[in-house]
Amino acid sequence: MTAQIIDGKKLAESIKEEIKNAIAERERQMLPIPGLATVLVGNNPASKTYVANKIKTSDALGIRSFSYELDENVSLEELESLIKELNDNPDVQGVLVQLPLPEHLSEDKVMHNISPKKDVDGLHPYNAGLLSRKYSEPLFYPCTPSGIIRMIQSVCPDISGMNAAVIGRSSIVGMPTAMMLSRCNATPTICHSYTKHLDEICRQSDIIVAAAGTPKLIQGDWVKPGAIVIDVGINHIPDSTKPRGYRIVGDVDFDEAVKRAGAISPVPGGVGPMTIAMLMSNTLKAIEYRES
Amino acid sequence: MTAQIIDGKKLAESIKEEIKNAIAERERQMLPIPGLATVLVGNNPASKTYVANKIKTSDALGIRSFSYELDENVSLEELESLIKELNDNPDVQGVLVQLPLPEHLSEDKVMHNISPKKDVDGLHPYNAGLLSRKYSEPLFYPCTPSGIIRMIQSVCPDISGMNAAVIGRSSIVGMPTAMMLSRCNATPTICHSYTKHLDEICRQSDIIVAAAGTPKLIQGDWVKPGAIVIDVGINHIPDSTKPRGYRIVGDVDFDEAVKRAGAISPVPGGVGPMTIAMLMSNTLKAIEYRES
């Protein structure tokens, strides 16, 4: 028996379709349409690709995009001044500063400057804090964790009481995913490089979210039969048969895990497209805060 | 063999002694001394006791206390206006609104009003968000979780790689304790009322933090031999042999758990005194933000 494949690309398409329709409806009603500002600093090729994808997707859905490319050596003051301008711009509902930033810019300081009401990435400490409080709602849920939860719920709407191993404790993926799983009444274990017996923890988990950035870290026989496996890893592996000289793999040994899991997400075509879809969803949601 | 007792009262005394000396030294140097404002709404007897203890401890350490008692029916606007006044008062470094609040007052809305720089309880969403981000530091760590970590580290300074069951996911204790355990490189599992096989999770844990509010929830044979057990529960059990007609017990079956644990905190005399000591520590720390 092989696992059901959680097709992130297809799921993302249906979410984007809904957003597109909602925006078209706003246009018909002569309501303002949402705008997303992207800020790219420097020349990191992966960042360039991510930002280009976000702009392309915005355009396709009818979201206005405002694109800013800053020099690698831009000062903190200049970047902060641009963010302030975007916070004040009523046509911009979402402000996204592509990470990572060059070393001389403190990501923490930069993120603090984004208005929590325009924090469509959901990474501002204020929104992260609301996320961690059981009885409060953040203005925005962070994009990748939101996509992960949607993917899990697409195969199992009620995960209450399930054990979940979250591997990786980043502030962008691991930690907020653990908090969102707890909000769904699952029982998350936050694993990381110091965790002992990771194999045992995985074997006892009904859900595995792998966000460690290590190819094939999660071996096939670590997967509990029937478990839901979400692979967040994006690792470049040298591969001379590919035109670019590499291929992209996740953190899970997919070929083996697929034989044991109940449902599993592939890489690529899993979490990646969902992250962008959730960003668009947050941008649409942001216009509500403008109107409220 | 019985466990080492983690004497929270004694540990708290030594922390308070340090704070007292630091404040006396500030006085000698003619530096401003920290001030703590407590705001009590209504007539909850437990809240009255807690606030009275905080004021008494402040006085004993040389911290100036500013005490406000508001009527049960105070409006949100009146309470917010008092908080604003305290935020602006340069003699007040810490603002503490005793929880729980009467039902007509949203705790979330009230807590948002406290300046993060005076949030000595460490419960403002901004500080909670910074706590959840691996590479950032909150201005204040929340008091009870800080006390718990200090107690654990008093018997085991390096907990990296240890499995930790946190039972309870409140925004005051469980959730921030899990995040602080992760910061210490332990592997926390966030358990709650929907968690299945809580006994199994406990048996695999090197550290148990019980903050569920259920007497004797954690049975003796759930404790892994040698584990560190911190009991955060404060439960009132009818007891006709006591003058007040009740006695206070924790969430752990102490008499049985003490036979298996390596170290265990009692109730009372465990986490309770540590929470107040950490509040005083935060209040002293707050004066640094005033000066910076």
Secondary structure elements and pairings:
The structure is a homodimer of 292-residue chains.
Chain A: E1 4-5, H1 8-28, E2 35-41, H2 45-61, E3 64-70, H3 76-88, E4 94-97, H4 107-113, H5 125-132, H6 143-155, E5 163-167, H7 174-183, E6 187-191, H8 198-203, E7 207-210, E8 228-231, E9 235-238, E10 246-249, H9 254-257, E11 263-264, H10 271-291
Parallel strand pairs in A: 1-11, 2-3, 2-4, 5-6, 5-7, 7-8, 8-11
Antiparallel strand pairs in A: 9-10
Helix pairs in contact in A: 1-10, 2-10, 6-7, 6-10
Describe this structure as you would to a colleague.
2 copies of one chain form a homodimer. Chain A has 10 helices and 11 strands. Chain A has 292 residues and is of the alpha/beta class. In chain A, a hairpin with a 7-residue loop joins strand 9 and strand 10 (246-249). The longest helix of chain A is centred in the first third of the chain and has 21 residues, at 8-28. Chain A is globular and about 50 Å long. At the A-B interface, helix 5, helix 7 and strand 6 of A face helix 5, helix 7 and strand 6 of B.
